[in-house]
Amino acid sequence: MVSTLGALVGPNLWGSYQRSSEKTVVYDYAYRLKAATRGVTEGVSYGEDELSDRAGGGQFPLPDDWTMESNTPLYFMPSGVTNGAQLVFLSPTQQRWKLVLKALDGSPWVETL
Fold first, then answer.
1. 55-108: per-residue pLDDT in tens?
2. HEC assignment per residue over the chain
3. Strand 96-101 to strand 67-71: parallel, antiparallel, or no bridges (unpaired)?
4. In whole angstroms, how far apart are CA 59 and each of 8, 19, 34?
5. Contact (CB, 8 A) for 63 and 83
6. What is the rounded radius of gyration, in angstroms, for the C-alpha atoms of the chain?
7. What total number of domains does the chain contain?
8. Spatial separation of the C-alpha atoms in residues 108 and 53, rounded to whole Å
9. Residue 42 CB partners (closer than 8 Å, separation 6+)
10. For tag attachment on the chain, is the N or C end more exposed, with fewer CB atoms within 10 Å?
11. Euclidean distance between CA atoms 10 and 16, whole angstroms
12. What's the pLDDT score for residue 8?
């Protein structure tokens, strides 16, 4: 009985743990972006290819085996106000994650696609 229950529950628990870990990676990326703009005296902008410049040693490298599939241009003013952006990541488990940085305050929202 216990082994049957473990066989049914175990994979679901592991999947939940994996999704939670991946979601944390995406939120951490958002917070690194915002932290990099604190204290700047001029606006900071990133184009569609600048954020994903992992091979070229870009400022915001992704963890190993993660890729950025797309992103919209992103701009931070010295006050911290942003135009907002959407970034789509592909995790090592082949799950797509969408990070939305909301306009004005840049607060992050993460969801799976």
1. 444 567 788 888 888 888 888 888 878 888 898 999 999 999 999 999 998 899
2. CHHHHHHHHHHHHHHHHHHHHHHHHHHHHHHHHHHHCCCCCCCEEECCCCCCCCCCCCCCCCCCCCEEEEECCEEECCCCCECCEEEEEECCCCCEEEEEECCECCCEEEEEC
3. unpaired
4. 43, 26, 12
5. no
6. 17
7. 1
8. 21
9. 78
10. N
11. 10
12. 62
Domain that holds residue 30: 2-112
Nearest to 50 by CA among 33, 25, 27: 33
The CA-based diameter of the chain, rounded to the nearest angstrom, is: 64
Q: What is the pLDDT of residues 8-27, one digit of tens each?
A: 656 667 788 889 999 999 99
- Whether pTM exceeds 0.90: no
Q: Which residue has the tokens 């992992």?
A: 54
Residue with tokens 């995790």: 91
